[in-house]
Design goal:
Radius of gyration: 21 Å
Number of helices: 15
Shape: globular
CATH architecture of one domain: 3-Layer(aba) Sandwich
Helix content: 40-55%
Bound molecules: nicotinamide-adenine-dinucleotide
Structural class: alpha/beta
CATH superfamily of one domain: NAD(P)-binding Rossmann-like Domain
CATH topology of one domain: Rossmann fold
Largest sheet: 7 strands, mixed
Distance between the termini: 34 Å
Strand content: 15-25%
Length: 412
C-alpha cells in the first residue's frame, strides 16, 4: 500500500540531504518542522438528509506552513480522503506556492464523501457546516480555500456566503468563486492551461515536433488541458477517466467528447474513438496525468511510451515509478510546477478582490504564462547545473526559499 504522505515527506528529506541542510542549519529541526503541520484540524459534520435521517461526515483542514504567507489550498470531496492524503496535499501546496513565488503558505482540506451520492441541498448543508466549524481558522489573511477534486465554483460560492454570515470583508476568503461573486476570469481553466504551458516549454526544450498527447482525468484539470491542446492543434489521441479510456490514432475531437461525456457520463461509446485499457501506457509522445495521486506506479511505469510527462494531478507518480521513468529517459515536469497554474490564478483572484479592480482574461493568461515560464526556466537551469531531475530541482528551489524564510522569522 502506497502511503502518500510518506512519499511526500521522503522527497523533502532527499532534498534536505542534497542541499546539506543538516550542516547548514544545524539544530534548526528543518525536517520535523516540515513533517508536522502547523495545525491539524479534524472534525465531524452532521447533516440532515432531505428525506429525514442524519448523516455524519469526516472532515479535515491541514494548515501545513504559513512561513511565506497565509495558508492556501483546495478542498477535496472524495471517498478516499483521509488524514495522510490531506497532509500530503497540504505539504505539496507549501512547496508549490514557494516554487512559483506566491506570498502564501500551504494547506488543504477535505471531506470523506462521494458528492454524487448527495443532493444539491444536502451538499450545500455539508459545505456550510464545514465552513461554520472552520470560521475562526480561515479568512483572507489566514487560510484561503479553493477548489480541488469533487468541488468547484458552486461550492466556493457557498463557502463565501457562509463565511460572510459570520465575518466582514469576506470576498478574498476563498478563490475559484463564480465570476459574479468576485471570481477571476480564467480561474476555472487555469490549472489545465498551466499544465499545457509547462508541457510546451519542456517539449520545446526537448526539440519535440508534431507530437501526440494523451490525458488521464477528464475533470476540471484534464478537460481544460485537453481542450487547450486541441485548440492549439496538438493531436490528443487518448483520454481516460474513472469510467474508462478511449483512443484514436487520428486524434479525438475533444469538444465533441466533452458533450458526449456530459450527456452519457462516460467517455466510452464516443464515435471515432475505441475503448482501451490504460491511458498511462498508450501510444503517445506526451502524457498528462490529470486525475489523482498514485496512478503511475512501479507496475505500469515500465510500459509508459511517452517521452514527456507533465503532471496535472498532485502526486500521480510514485517514487518507484519516478525512478523507472528516469532510467528510461522520460522527462517529467513535476506537479508542483506543472499544475501551479490553479494557485497562481487563485492568487490573481485574491489580489483582484483586495483591489476591487478586475482584469481582462488576456491579462490573467499573460501573467499566468509569464510566471509559469519563469518558474520553468529556473527549474530547468538548476536541473542542468546540478545534473538532477526537474522534480528534484523544483524541490531544491522551493525548499531553499522556505527554509531561508523560516530562519529569517526565527522560532515559530
Ligand atoms: P475533478 O474531480 O474535476 O476530476 C478528476 C478526474 O479524474 C475525473 O475525470 C475522474 O473520473 C478522474 N479519475 C479519478 N480517479 C481516477 C483513476 N483512478 N483513473 C483515471 N481517472 C480517474 O478533479 P480536478 O479538480 O480536475 O483535479 C484533478 C487533479 O488535479 C487532482 O490531483 C487535484 O489535486 C489536482 N489539481 C487540481 C487543481 C484545480 O484547480 N482543480 C489545481 C491543482 C491541482
Amino acid at each position: 500500500m502506497v502511503n502518500v504522505f510518506e512519499n511526500a515527506i521522503g522527497m523533502v528529506e532527499r532534498t534536505a540531504d542534497l542541499l546539506d541542510f543538516e550542516r547548514r542549519f544545524k539544530g534548526m529541526q528543518i525536517i520535523e518542522r516540515m513533517r508536522i503541520p502547523d495545525k491539524t484540524i479534524e472534525f465531524r459534520a452532521t447533516v440532515q438528509l432531505d428525506n429525514g435521517p442524519l448523516k455524519v461526515f469526516h472532515c479535515y483542514r491541514i494548515q501545513h506552513s504559513d512561513v511565506l504567507g497565509p495558508y492556501k489550498g483546495g478542498i477535496r470531496f472524495h471517498t478516499d480522503v483521509d488524514i495522510d492524503e490531506v497532509k500530503a496535499l497540504a505539504l505539496w501546496m507549501t512547496m508549490k506556492t514557494a516554487l512559483v513565488e506566491l506570498p502564501y503558505g500551504g494547506s488543504k482540506g477535505g471531506i470523506t464523501v462521494n458528492p454524487k451520492t448527495l443532493t444539491v441541498t444536502e451538499l450545500e448543508r455539508l459545505v456550510r457546516k464545514y465552513v461554520f466549524r472552520l470560521v475562526n481558522d480561515i479568512g483572507p489573511n489566514i487560510d484561503i480555500p479553493a477548489p480541488d477534486m469533487g468541488t468547484g465554483a458552486r461550492e466556493m460560492a457557498w463557502i463565501f456566503d457562509e463565511y460572510r454570515k459570520h465575518r466582514d470583508a469576506a470576498q478574498g476568503v476563498v478563490t475559484g468563486k463564480p465570476i459574479e461573486l468576485g471570481g477571476s476570469l480564467g480561474r476555472m481553466e487555469a490549472t489545465g492551461r498551466g499544465v499545457v504551458c509547462a508541457m510546451l516549454e519542456a517539449a520545446k526544450n526537448m526539440g519535440l515536433r508534431d507530437y501526440t498527447a494523451a490525458v488521464q482525468g477528464f475533470g476540471n484539470v484534464g478537460m481544460h488541458a485537453a481542450l487547450d491542446l486541441h485548440q492549439r492543434g496538438i493531436k490528443v489521441v487518448g483520454v481516460g477517466d474513472i469510467t474508462g479510456s478511449v483512443y484514436s490514432a487520428q486524434g479525438i475531437d475533444i469538444p465533441g467528447l466533452v458533450l458526449h461525456q456530459k450527456k452519457t457520463g462516460r467517455l466510452e461509446g464516443f464515435p471515432g474513438a475505441d475503448p482501451m485499457e490504460d491511458v498511462v501506457t498508450c501510444k503517445c509522445d506526451v502524457l498528462l496525468p490529470c486525475a489523482r495521486e498514485n496512478t503511475i506506479l512501479a507496475d505500469n511505469a515500465e510500459f509508459v511510451q511517452a517521452k514527456l510527462i507533465a503532471e496535472g494531478a498532485n502526486g500521480p507518480t510514485t517514487p518507484e515509478a519516478d525512478a523507472i521513468l528516469e532510467k528510461k529517459g522520460v522527462v517529467v515536469v513535476p506537479d508542483i510546477l506543472a499544475n501551479a497554474g490553479g494557485v497562481i490564478v487563485s492568487y490573481f483572484e485574491w489580489v483582484q478582490n483586495r483591489e476591487g479592480f478586475y482584469w481582462e482574461e488576456e491579462d490573467v493568461n499573460a501573467r499566468l504564462f509569464a510566471r509559469l515560464r519563469k518558474a520553468y526556466a529556473r527549474v530547468k537551469d538548476m536541473a542542468g547545473r546540478r545534473r538532477i531531475s526537474l522534480r528534484q530541482a523544483a524541490y531544491c528551489i522551493a525548499m531553499e526559499r522556505i527554509v531561508q524564510a523560516m530562519i529569517a522569522r526565527g522560532v515559530q
